[in-house]
Amino acid sequence: QVQLVESGGGLVQPGGSLRLSCGASGSIFSINAMGWYRQAPGKERELVAVMPSGGSANYADSVKGRFTISRDNAKNTVYLQMNSLKPENTAVYYCNANIRPIYGIPYFDYWGQGTQVTVSS
Asked: Which tens digit of pLDDT belongs to each residue from 44-70?
């Protein structure tokens, strides 16, 4: 079984920063893309940033220049550095990873449980 666990969420003032972490554990043969999504109350889950295994990062237009995604492949971990946070960034942030758990088994998309980010004075 593969598990993704997020951490680093919390309450921050507008203009502040947070760094989210997501570690993948369990049966992992290979990881393709890893990324971050978020969902605000009453809204659809949306892409924040994604890092393919062999390509450049992609970001939602609303976070470009403020958020940075990075990976530590040795730790099977993806990070999201969030700077200049705004109240509209308040949401539950979810980690996503496309993983082949065992040789010969297809890749599957896995999701973390989510971590709450609240931007408020």
From this structure: 999 999 999 988 999 999 999 999 999
- β-pair partners for 47: 37
69 token code pair: 């995604």
Judging by DSSP bridges, how do beta strands 91-100 and 30-39 pair with one another?
antiparallel
DSSP reduced 3-state for 65: coil
- Cite the beta strand spans of the chain per DSSP E: 2-7, 10-12, 18-26, 30-39, 46-51, 58-59, 67-72, 77-82, 91-100, 108-111, 115-119
Q: Is the pLDDT of residue 39 over 90?
A: yes
Q: What is the pLDDT of residue 78?
A: 97
